[in-house]
Amino acid sequence: MTWSERAVERDGVRLSCRDWGGTGPPVVLLHGLAGHAGEWDLLARALSPTHRVVAVDQRGHGASSRRPRDVSRSAYVADVAAVLEQLGLHQPVLVGQSLGGHTALLTAAAHPHLVRGLVLVEAGPGGPNANVQADIGGWLDAWPTPFPTREAAAAFLGGGAVGEGWAAGLEEHVDGWWPRFDRDIMVDSLAENARRSFWGQWQTITCPVLAVLGQSGIIAPPEAEAMLQQHPGATAASIPGAGHDLHLERPDALRHLLLEFLDELCAPHLYGRP
Prior knowledge:
Layout: E1 4-10, E2 13-19, E3 26-30, H1 41-47, E4 52-56, H2 73-86, E5 93-97, H3 99-110, E6 117-121, H4 132-141, H5 150-156, H6 160-167, E7 171-173, E8 176-178, H7 183-188, H8 191-195, H9 199-204, E9 209-214, H10 221-230, E10 234-239, H11 246-249, H12 251-265
Parallel strand pairs: 3-4, 3-5, 5-6, 6-9, 9-10
Antiparallel strand pairs: 1-2, 2-4, 7-8
Helix pairs in contact: 1-12, 2-3, 5-6
């Protein structure tokens, strides 16, 4: 099964979505900062025979509007709500990695009636982190763009499946391969995460939650423990040998965990069917 591009418009911003079709319970996939919807292709293809799967290029990323005026957390959340409404996705499970998981978390908190379940991949309430913008800005500044080839980009961006996943989000120009985002938009998107945490929103979430963490990821054990203590409907799983990009490193393990979660959450009785 292949995907078709669907465009959602909200407040002058175009959001490009990879719609994998299907008539089953909906699943919406949200990539992380500086990422792209194509990172989810393997997972989306595996889910599409039994679920309606949509992967979103979030504002400022990929094929979506590159320079939106508003990159606040609330703008990202409103985008998700617009995607659900305009594409007719009734109570999906939101799956998000890193900043995409943070967006999914805030969407579930702000619009509990819109979300059936939440899967956080290397994401949590976090913050505040005064260094995050400088750290991300420095990392992006270190990219030797343009890359001469996509293979060179993949090698620089981690090699293997991780590097290939990141490099797939680049676009080719006459002088080489460039990111499909602007540095300042990425850094500005983290402004609120630098200043504050979002534990209050986490505590209001009512839907079931699965947190999938890499053994060497960025979510420290005390944060994971606090998440479980504050949300009795949450469960967590750690993937051995995986880091922050576990959806690229270990897509098989993530697929297994996600299918188990979806099978339980989307059982017929939960849909009001006998």
